[in-house]
Predict the 3D structure of the following.
Amino acid sequence: MLYTIGYQGTVQPNLLETLKQAGVAHLLDIRAVPQSRKAGFSKTLLGASLAEIGIGYTHLRDLGTPKPGRDAARAGKIGLMHSIFDAHMQTPEAQFALQQARALTAASPCCLLCFERDHRECHREIVAGLLGGAVTHLAPEPV
């Protein structure tokens, strides 16, 4: 089973509880820049918090949206972000990261993480589609 989740509008405890309740075994962080101004969502702290509850963590930087795509998403130009990301996915680095994600998702229930709450406004929906299979989009309790 493959899940996706965004942390926009929530706090880390709510995200962790949602992952636990869903039975996620491994979180795949697909942000190009795994830092956050939101407490608890930067790579090191998030990975440590996940480890405390028995969930693995892998950062796959090359499955992140390049800066022009992130800028397009912030401007509400979701179609442009998708085009930029689709082109990025043709690079050898992105294809290698996609193979890593395939291996991890074949081994245990995984969840793709990015910022946007709505998966339709995020590149994680594209990545989930490329990975194939059934996908459940999780939404942690908002604050």
